[in-house]
Design a protein that fits this description.
2 domains, three-stranded parallel beta sheet, 173 residues, four-stranded mixed beta sheet, single chain, alpha/beta
């Protein structure tokens, strides 16, 4: 007689928090301001403004855009701001920094408005092994978010989770 295989994970009260569920689909791109500078180091306001005005910003339609400078040029903040203003009518989201910084910004926006009541007083596993680009910062954000409500927090997969946090009787909710 064969024993029935029982999926204990499915039958448990364990809640899985998968950051991939909150990944915003779409094209990611970046703009390196060094390419907009004279000799890649000198910002000349008049010429810079003319470039911004003449540039075809429609190519960034519905994209997520990161603005950064890859060299040590000293760039006034207004230059980044001017690029952001030019992108605003076209891009879905604009942020300062690298593509990883862009992902962090997107997750920050999404997770800050998340209803986490379903995780109240439950053991939660923050799923690892993402197929999409989930930055480490998003895992930290999720941990901070869930620590206030979860009974416990683990990382990984149900079969090999790493325990991270367990609320004790002395912990405040």
């Amino acid at each position: 007689m064969k024993e029935e295989i029982i999926n204990r994970v499915t039958n448990s009260v364990l809640e899985v928090f998968d950051l991939e569920d909150y990944y915003q689909e779409g094209t990611r791109t970046s703009i390196d301001l060094k390419d907009w500078l004279e000799h890649e180091f000198i910002l000349r306001e008049k010429e810079f403004r003319a470039q911004v005005k003449a540039f075809n910003w429609k190519q960034y339609q519905n994209q997520y855009v990161a603005i950064y400078c890859s060299n040590d040029a000293i760039i006034a903040d207004w230059a980044f701001m001017l690029i952001a203003l030019a992108l605003k009518p076209y891009a879905k989201h604009v942020s300062f920094g690298t593509l990883t910084d862009l992902e962090t910004s997107l997750y920050q926006n999404t997770l800050s408005g998340l209803d986490i009541t379903k995780y109240q007083d439950k053991p939660v596993i923050i799923k690892g092994c993402a197929k999409k680009p989930v930055p480490t910062s998003a895992y930290i954000m999720a941990t901070n978010l869930l620590q206030g409500v979860a009974k416990s927090i683990m990382f990984g997969e149900a079969c090999s989770a790493v325990p991270l946090f367990k609320r004790t009787l002395t912990d405040k909710k």
